[in-house]
Amino acid sequence: METKDLQSSSSLSFEFTGQFGEFFRIWIVNLVLTILTLGIYSAWAKVRTQRYFYANTRLAGATFDYLAGPMMILKGRLIAVGFFILYLGLTSIAPPFDLLASLLFLIAMPWVVNKALAFRAHNSAYRNIRFGFEQNYSKAIKVFIGLPILLPLSLGLLYPFFDQRRSRFILGQSRYGTSAFAMEAPLGRFYKTYLLAGLLLLGVFFLGGMLGSRLFESVMTMSAQPAGEPPVEMRGSPLGLLPILVGYLLVYGFIKARIANLIWNHTDLNGHRFESHMQARKLIVLLLTNALAIILSLGLLIPWAKIRMARYRAETLQFIPQGDLDGFLADQAEQVAATGEGVGDVFDVDLGL
Question: Would strands 12-16 and 129-133 be described as parallel, antiparallel, or unpaired?
Fold first, then answer.
């Protein structure tokens, strides 16, 4: 997608208005009640959290709505827990059942993915018009069974292809009202992103190894331990995991920013387009400071980190309507009313992964 084309139309910026203090009160109550109810309240916690983030995400002066109820989510989780308990029981009695259960789970994956995406879309709305997801099992089988089987055989070289196909499936089957989304990001750009990420990972390993060896030598010099044996105070220290965490966040932030831009800059909704301009450097700094804050606060700043991430994602994403947005929304409302979309296919159980 050419930059000049993106700039030819007026753009509408997404906005996130959530505040740390507000969300912290929701988060801490959710956490306490989930613990006290042995996890049962987690369904209500998810609904409260989703509704807060949806209600504080704005586009063209209007907010989004999360329409699912907690009982829908609780049903799905109870079903999942029931299957998990059954799995543990059968594998303890008959260990060979483990392989059969894994095979059955793999076969069920396309069905679960379709149901999960359909539930999420059907229970999301903007200006009283629901999103939707057209379930397609043949495509899901290719993406979520065929490609994962081939991934280890290709030594991971097919992962960019899998990522592109997965993103195209999720967006390509989605719709807003009666208008379909389409995503046609070029495969070569996915491979380029992951190639650069691989080089970045090698650089991180190299620098981490150098810094780690120098740190070890410095500590050895100051300690009375025999050469070649780590000091007692360093054995099992969480500081040893710090370079791994930093390296992971560097690579993850780079991939997330590049792939998000690639996907959204090649996505359209019935001719209307999107523009994403996340910067890998800013996202990496955001991830590192969030991780540091969460560690130092013993987890109490998780809500602060979530608010920061939501705000950055919103402010770096724009919707570029081709023509009058109000006219497009009015047309969607009329078509939904005429076809009955959003009424006949109601998903009352959350089968989210």
Answer: unpaired
Q: Which two tokens stand for residue 170?
A: 């999720």
Tell me the three state secondary structure of residue 57: strand
**H/E element, 43:** helix 42-55
Q: What one-character DSSP code corresponds to residue 102?
A: H
What is the four-CA torsion angle of 117, 129, 63, 300, rounded to 10 degrees?
Answer: -20
Q: Residue 39's CB: how many other CB atoms inside 10 A?
A: 12
Alpha-carbon distance 302 to 294, whole Å?
Answer: 6
Is the CB of residue 11 less than 8 Å from the CB of residue 275?
A: yes
Query: 347 is written with which tokens?
Result: 């998903």
Give the residue from 202, 168, 210, 174 showing the smallest Cα distance to 187.
168
Write down the residue that tokens 């280890």 correspond to. Answer: 152
How many angstroms separate the CA atoms of 93 and 300, rounded?
42
pLDDT in tens, the chain (353 residues): 444 344 445 889 999 999 999 999 999 999 999 999 999 999 999 999 999 999 999 999 999 999 999 998 888 888 888 888 887 887 788 777 778 877 888 888 898 889 889 989 999 999 999 999 999 999 999 999 999 999 999 999 999 999 999 999 999 999 998 899 999 999 999 999 999 999 998 888 777 666 655 555 555 555 555 555 555 454 555 555 677 788 889 999 999 999 999 999 999 998 899 999 999 999 999 999 999 999 999 999 999 999 999 999 999 999 999 877 777 776 666 665 554 444 433 344 454 44
